[in-house]
Amino acid sequence: MRVIKVFWLHILLAVVALALWDTPFVKPFRVFVVWMHEMGHALATLVTGGDVSELRVRWNESGHVISRGGIRPIISSAGYVGAACVGALLIYCGRWGGVQRVVLGLIGLLQVVLAVMYTPFWGVDFWFGVGCGLILMGIALRLENGALVLATWVGVMLCLYSLEDFRTDLWMQTVRTDAGILAQYWGVPILAYPIAFVWAAVSVWVMFLAMRGLARHVDVDERRDLEVGVGEGPNERIGE
Length: 240
Description:
Blueprint: H1 2-19, H2 27-47, E1 51-57, E2 63-68, H3 72-77, H4 80-92, H5 97-118, H6 124-142, H7 144-170, H8 178-186, H9 192-231
Antiparallel strand pairs: 1-2
Helix pairs in contact: 1-7, 2-4, 2-7, 4-7, 4-9, 5-6, 5-7, 6-7, 7-9, 8-9
């Protein structure tokens, strides 16, 4: 019961997402997650000293980042693992509404900046990226409760989509994914499978850590409330 108490919103949103997974309602959010995946590649390229030429995301949930330079293992890992880490961060920040809103707003800001800089102006993915980014920033700035629900929904979607990616891409067509590309870069194609396994394990691990951390904070708050309640009994007077 305590799990339901702590994660009731996450569970509800996960059920809704899974029930509507292949419907037009969830489709835009799935494309948004692909945006997060490609953003991870682009940001990792820039952070490690590389240059990004183009970032594209298609409605069929495919995408790519054209870049040169940077640290290739970090860049390749930043797609799957990066999206899972962002989802875990949004879940973990659920205890601090203000922090969660800041994270949500920063995600929106980064999406707008990267779309403007690296996605062709005429493309649908440009307008989708800019529109999603502005919506995230607007809700983060103006709607406290709305930001909580949206941030939790995005976190759940990122985690669920990461797991879906592991099943459909990393396991079923490993050599065609980022893991396969990295293995080819190293000149050892068979490495694609252990790379995919490590990425999946790390992503599931950070999701678990986020949920466990949130649950522990709730436990601490409940114990503190209990102690305050005991210390302020009817026979307790200030100064004694």
